[in-house]
């Protein structure tokens, strides 16, 4: 019956289309044709959008089935022209699908449909004019793999077929005619899905009607009136049962939010997942406390179980592979960051994934234990530092069709994205201020798009903290620091020198986050001091005279870092000159620091290992050698004040 229904629809659509054949020649018929000469299939520039109209409404009316990726039906788009002289409507549709017919403002038209792109040449339109495009199509376009727009699979445990969509980032065209424009959220979307009456279809928004078609099929009508990005529209179809729970965020004063779950209709599926699903209520209540009220509370939150590896945060209805606590928290966190506020470009995917990943940490911290959260962050740091390269920000030249795994890099986009939010929390050093900044950002950009710089500016304005260097080092920059600490006791107290080196020659060379250092005195006595990092080598004087038994850098693991050496001086450090040289190894600037005050003139020489003098000068104060032009190798720094001579060995990378 499913096949015959699709066949009837296809036959009718093809009959209407046969009256107006394809127009395969767009050239010279469109004054904006130069915009379309290079589609994202043929160029790395997928940030291009046909931005001459604004989508207001989409209505999908499709027949779907759990055993196949085939879809068939219609897609209605209503829009308004946003600039003068529009004469071409641009959409994308996978060329594996059949475009049966298209109507523009009620009239049957002849589009150009080639290389998965649709060009519809129209009479010239001006700003404010209405656009209505109704497209009939059918077919199946799945090529398999995680980033297929539509996929069918079978669950062996419960014996169920399931078909689901996943449009992010470039695959919405695999199942509906779309303009894949991150900058243009659709004001409202209606989705009607017809399936055999033993199955259910989950989708975005509210289920407003279930229609028994009087035969073997049922139509599920879903409506959302919240603005939505094209790639967050979705459906999932299977033999589902429905299990619902209700969260009660404090902001609703006793009212509740529906959490609607479509899970496989098998006697063991609910018992196996119930405990995890029930935790959804406390997760939503927590995130509403931290981020602000759940942004789609007037509709619902939900999940459709599918054979997806992980989950996909479809707005108000996540497609999910399991209800494991971390995954559940991650996908729900996306409803604030990734759905309500979405990335303005795929280069800024951190706005989505870094924030959702940090939600996993916060879920552990507040709902499980601090130890569980610490383990999460430690594991994240280890994963991040498994390689020296790559930035959280995705360079524009790395964003293109076929390179999706760079955009969704687990180490950089997810783990490092979460870790730098954690470090930002540390830098702000006030949880009320940190979460207040997140809530303020959410309010400022609700239902909108944002870049990493939008977030930076929002937080800076709210907290009064200049974040320029932080983002240059941690968001755009690469790598991480390795800290080394040398300490000794003088008459004034304990003296510490902190040096840090970059993880690789190409990485960011300097990280200015203040560093916490824990001093353990034994007998359960310890203290934490925070040392400002103003250069690759800093000296810090304390009044502490009590001997320490252990010195620990970054004891609470706030910063992505490794620890080189922590040492106490006995001869070399406690030299009469108080000389410290670093960072060591050095890449660019080698700093010569004298911790002991002296008005004595000092002769400083830079030597190679043979003792040959490379450079020398006289000074009474600290100095910096620029070693960026010197070849890699081992060098000696020799200091003579006329009474003492101290020599230090330095490695140049």
Based on secondary structure, the structural category is alpha+beta
**What fraction, in percent, of the residue positions are helical?**
10-25%
Overall pLDDT: 88
Radius of gyration from CA coordinates: 30 Å
Low-confidence stretches: 1-49, 570-574
What is the CATH H-level superfamily of the largest domain? tricorn interacting facor f3 domain
**CATH topology assignment of the largest domain:** Immunoglobulin-like
Share of residues in strands: 35-45%
Helical segment count: 12
**Distance, first to last CA:** 70 Å
CATH architecture of the largest domain: Sandwich
- Indicate how many domains the architecture comprises: 5
Q: What general form does the structure show? A: elongated
Features:
653 residues, alpha+beta, Immunoglobulin-like, Zincin-like, Neutral Protease, domain 2, 5 domains, five-stranded mixed sheet
What does this entry look like structurally?
The protein is of the alpha+beta class. The chain has 5 domains: 2-150 and 158-238, Sandwich (Immunoglobulin-like); 239-337, Zincin-like (2-Layer Sandwich); 342-474, Neutral Protease Domain 2 (Neutral Protease, domain 2); 481-574, Aminopeptidase N, middle-beta domain (Immunoglobulin-like, Sandwich), CATH 2.60.40; 576-653, Macroglobulin (MG2) domain (Immunoglobulin-like, Sandwich). Helix content is 22%, strand content 35%. The protein is built from 12 helices and 36 strands. An 8-stranded mixed sheet has the order 5-4-8-2-1-11-14-13, with helices on one face. A hairpin with a 4-residue loop joins strand 35 (633-640) and strand 36. Helix 4 (280-291) crosses helix 6 and helix 6 (350-368) packs antiparallel against helix 7 (370-384). The chain is elongated and about 105 Å long.
């Amino acid at each position: 019956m499913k096949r015959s229904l699709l066949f009837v629809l296809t036959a009718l659509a093809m009959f209407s289309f046969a009256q107006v054949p394809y127009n395969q020649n767009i050239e010279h018929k469109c004054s904006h044709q130069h915009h379309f000469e290079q589609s994202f299939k043929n160029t790395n520039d997928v940030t291009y959008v046909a931005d001459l109209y604004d989508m207001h409404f989409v209505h999908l009316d499709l027949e779907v089935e759990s055993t196949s990726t085939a879809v068939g039906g219609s897609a209605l788009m209503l829009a308004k022209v946003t600039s003068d002289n529009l004469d071409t409507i641009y959409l994308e549709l996978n060329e594996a699908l059949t475009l049966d017919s298209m109507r523009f403002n009620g009239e049957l038209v002849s589009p150009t449909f080639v290389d998965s792109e649709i060009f519809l040449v129209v009479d010239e339109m001006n700003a404010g004019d209405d656009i209505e495009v109704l497209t009939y199509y059918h077919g199946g376009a799945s090529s398999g793999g995680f980033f297929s727009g539509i996929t069918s699979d079978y669950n062996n445990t419960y014996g169920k077929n399931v078909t689901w969509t996943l449009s992010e980032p470039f695959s919405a065209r695999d199942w509906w005619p779309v303009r894949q424009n991150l900058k243009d959220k659709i004001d409202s979307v209606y989705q009607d899905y017809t399936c055999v009456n033993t199955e259910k279809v989950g989708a975005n928004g509210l289920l407003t009607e279930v229609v028994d078609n009087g035969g073997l099929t049922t139509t599920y009508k879903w409506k959302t009136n919240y603005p939505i990005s094209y790639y967050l529209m979705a459906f999932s179809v299977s033999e589902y049962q429905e299990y619902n729970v209700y969260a009660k965020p404090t902001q609703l004063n006793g009212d509740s939010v529906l959490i609607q779950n479509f899970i496989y209709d098998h006697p063991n599926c609910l018992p196996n997942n119930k405990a995890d699903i029930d935790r959804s209520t406390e997760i939503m209540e927590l995130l509403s406390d931290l981020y602000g009220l759940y942004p789609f509370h007037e509709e619902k939150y939900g999940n459709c179980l599918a054979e997806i590896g992980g989950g996909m945060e479809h707005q108000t209805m996540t497609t999910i592979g399991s209800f494991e606590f971390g995954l559940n928290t991650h996908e729900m966190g996306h409803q604030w960051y990734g759905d309500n506020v979405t990335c303005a470009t795929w280069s800024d995917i951190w706005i989505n994934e870094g924030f959702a990943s940090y939600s996993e940490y916060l879920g552990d911290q507040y709902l499980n234990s601090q130890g569980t959260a610490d383990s999460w962050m430690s594991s994240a740091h280890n994963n991040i530092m498994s390689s020296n390269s790559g930035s959280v920000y995705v360079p524009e030249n790395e964003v293109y069709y076929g390179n999706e795994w760079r955009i969704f890099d687990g180490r950089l986009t997810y783990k490092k994205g979460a870790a730098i939010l954690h470090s930002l929390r540390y830098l702000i050093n006030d949880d009320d201020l940190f979460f207040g900044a997140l809530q303020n950002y959410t309010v400022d950009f609700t239902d909108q798009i944002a870049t990493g710089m939008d977030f930076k500016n929002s937080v800076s304005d709210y907290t009064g903290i200049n974040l320029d260097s932080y983002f240059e080092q941690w968001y755009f920059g690469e790598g991480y620091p390795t800290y080394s600490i040398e300490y000794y006791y003088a008459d004034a107290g304990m003296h510490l020198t902190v040096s840090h080196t970059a993880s690789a020659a190409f990485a960011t060379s300097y990280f200015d986050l203040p560093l916490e250092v824990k001093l353990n005195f034994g007998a359960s006595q310890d203290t934490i001091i925070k040392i400002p990092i103003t250069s690759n080598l800093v000296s810090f004087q304390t009044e502490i005279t009590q001997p320490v038994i252990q010195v620990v850098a970054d004891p609470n693991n706030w910063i992505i870092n490794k620890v080189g050496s922590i040492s106490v001086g006995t001869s070399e450090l406690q030299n009469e000159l108080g000389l410290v040289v670093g960072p060591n190894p050095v890449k660019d600037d080698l700093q010569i620091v004298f911790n002991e005050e002296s008005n004595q003139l000092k002769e400083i020489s830079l030597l190679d290992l043979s003792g040959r003098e490379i450079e020398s000068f006289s000074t009474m104060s600290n100095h910096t050698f620029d070693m960026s032009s010197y070849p890699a190798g081992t060098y000696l720094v020799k200091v003579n004040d006329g009474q003492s001579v101290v020599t230090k060995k330095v490695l140049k990378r």
